[in-house]
Every structure is written in C-alpha cells, then in structure tokens.
Amino acid sequence: MKKHIFRTKSINEFMLETKQDGGMNRVLGTFGLTMLGIGAIVGTGIFVLTGVAAANFSGPALVISFIIAALACGCAALCYAEFAAMVPVAGSAYTYGYVALGEFWAWIIGWDLLLEYAFGVSTVAIGWSGYFNNILMNLGITLPHALIAAPYDGGIVNLPAVLILVAIAVINIRGVSQSAWVNNIIVAIKLAVVGIFLALGVSHVDAANWVPFMPYGLSGVLTGASIIFFAYIGFDAVSTAAEEVKHPQRDLPRGIILSLIICTILYIAVSAVLTGMVPYLAFKTTAAPVAFALQAVGYHWGAAAVSVGAICGLTSVLLVMSFGQSRILFVMSRDGLLPKFFGHVHPKYKTPVRSSVLVFLSTAITAGFLPINIVAEMTNIGTLCAFIIVSAAVIILRKKAPNQSRAFKCPLVPYVPALSIIFCGILIYMLPLVTQIRFVVWLALGLVIYFGYGYKHSLLTTLRRSTAPAAEETAPVLPEGEETRTISMH
C-alpha cells in the first residue's frame, strides 16, 4: 500500500476528466477572476480583524503585520500561479498535489482546504449576521435573541446566518456567470466604501497615535501577522474556478497575482490610516474598527456607509468561498476519494449542484448552531499547511518534470517556494496551541476517512484492479532519478 498511496495522476488525465458530463461553462476572463479574488479577500480582514490585531498584538505596527502576511501569501501566490496555468483544473491545491506529490498528499491538501473553506464560510456568515442585526437595530427593528444566537450563546439558531447561506447557495447553483455578476456589483460597492474611508480618514491622521509604533515587540507583530493572515485567504479561491475560465493558462496567473496586489495595497493603506486616526488601544472595545474610527472623528454618515460596505464585503467573501469549497469537493468526489455522488455536473446549470448543496448544509449547521470563536480558530492553519505543500510541490515538480510546458513560471525557484514554506511555517508556530491540537485531530479524522474509504474507492485503485499486473506498475512513483508518468498538456 505504501507504494500506491503516493501514486500520481498526469495532467492529461485531469484534463480529460474536466470533459465529463460535458464540462462546465468557460465564461471567466482576467477581470472576472481578479474580481473573484478581491471578493474573497476584502471582507472580514479589513472590516473586523484590523482592530483586533492592532489592539491586542501589533499596535500601529499593524502595517508591518500586513506586509509580513502579504510576503507569505505573495510567495505562495506565485507557486499557485505556476500550477494554475499548468493544471487548469478546479481542484486548486488538491489537484497540484496529486500531480506532483501523489494521492496521499493530495488528500491531505484537499482535507485542509475543506476545513479552511467550511469554517471560513461559517465564520463570515456569523459575522454577516452580526452586521445585519446591527443595521436592523439602527432602523428600530430588533429580532428575538433566540433567532440570532447559537444555543451555546443562549439562543436557538442564528437564523440570519443560515438565510444568507441559502441565498449564496442558490446563486452558486444557478451558474458561474450569475455568481460573477453578483460578485462584481458587490466588490464595486465595497471598494467604493473603502475609498470613502481613506478619503475621509487621511485628513484626521495624527502621527502621535503611531507612538509607540511596536508596543508588543516583534513577537506581537508576528502574532498579529498570523491572526490577520485570515484577511488574505481567498486568492487561492481564484484557482478553483479553473474549469470555468476561457483562457486559463493566461488568465489564472493574472487573476491570482492582480487580486493579491490590489488587496495588499488596500490593507496597508487602511491599516495606516486606521491606527493614525484613533489610538490602537481604543479598538479593544469594538468589533467594527473602521466604522468606529469614523464615528470617533465625527463622520456618523460615513460609519453607516461602512456598515453597508461591510455587509457587501462579507457577502462577496461568502459567495467566493462557498464557490471554491464546492469545486474542491466536486473534484475530490470525481476522483473517487469522496463519494462520487457529489462529483456530478448538473446538465442544465453546468455547476456541481450536489456539492453546492452539501457545502450549504455543512456551513449552515455550523454557522447556525456554533459560536463564532469555535468556528473561527481553524481556518488559518489549514490554509497555511496547504500553502506549504503547494510550495514544496513546485520545487519537486521542477525536478521531476523539468521540460513540462509552463505558461507561467514562479521566479527564482527554489528560493521563492522556500521562502513561502518558511513564512507559512513561522505563522503556524505563532498560532495558539489549542488551534494546532485541533488541527492534528482534524488530520487524524481525515486519515481515517482516506484509508477507510478514499484509498479503496480512488479512480487509481479502480484502474489498478482492472488492469494487468504489468500495466499496474506505470502508476506509482518510480525510484528517484526516473520519470514518473507522462505529463502532457496535449
């Protein structure tokens, strides 16, 4: 078994699988992909986590925390861009791991990503509910506590969180064109709101609020970077749309890199203005730091506009992350590692409807019945581990298939992937111990499912059983220095 769990799949095999059931509609270009990336990235990080990180970890050096997190994501993004152009398949890091490292590591990445997206979507849905309830209260409408809180918090169900997930599921099921159209409108609104904040706030920056600049020391800045890393989660969701892109070899790298650059500039600008407007310790009392800062300097209408922008921002994050999780679940199911029932494309909508419904059910239950602190802790660590494995896969595949056609090449290999691994490893180390323990438990559960179901039902296992023993030896990884399997884009 040891030999077979590290068997790889060729790029050609993955490309053939994308044509099953007629395939999905290829309608996205560079602009649509960039907007998807911005839609996934700009949300919770800019409207919520900026205050948390500034008050408790980074102080005014929040700008440095964002830069450190951006460096980690930037190195990982270049690795993603190389794979996305080379393997334009919906599974994102899961697919890349299958090509370069083999089935076992592909499963680990896929299992990580399911954790990231499921808990990420649930966290954002709970945050969306909080902003929505706040807007209703400002309008004089108060919902019963039983319908806006989880049982752990004294309620029955967080109904607004569940209802927004219903709407997101319907949009994603109807098709990627509809999802992209809705996302583009929402992104335009929230970018306008961020622009309003910067225009209003920059004239109220007081340099005295930046002193002391690093009150919690370097360790605080690094811990802050590990916390606000959540703010950058989403650029990888661009690669999950690979099977719905018109020119994936060109547009996927552009979408990944452009969305990350734009969001990094926005984050640095917002964090600098935010900590200059209000003393960083003041953010300990608020979960809406951007609106709080505008209220503090007298722009009450601006604070109201930011609340609307926050709702839009969180909605687009929900839309893109739900989209991404359904595509990863779809590809893993199509490969047989999860029940093939979910690896089906709807003949009318050309979307993985069954996977989308399962994503809705799992996230709605989590968001509706669990408190935000429980569901929020697990998102970052799964993403960081996936980034590490993808970065390592770039180095390995350059060795195993140096002549493979690459429409986009990550620069300075192996140094850039190595920096990605180092940065992500440091951020994992800085996360709370309880988060690390829970992640180990999640991985253990994943191993039980893989060896109990996934390995036995994998397409590669089925193929091995149905072919002659001589042919069977073509699938596993061969000894070092030899070619593994034919990897071709043709």
UniProtKB/TrEMBL annotation:
The chain crosses the membrane at residues 27-55, 61-83, 148-173, 180-201, 213-235, 256-281, 301-324, 357-375, 381-398, 410-431, 437-455. It holds the Pfam family AA_permease_2. It is found in: Membrane. Residues 471-490 are annotated as: Disordered. Keywords: Membrane, Transmembrane, Transmembrane helix, Transport. The keyword Transport applies. It is a multi-pass membrane protein. This is Amino acid permease. It comes from Megasphaera hominis.
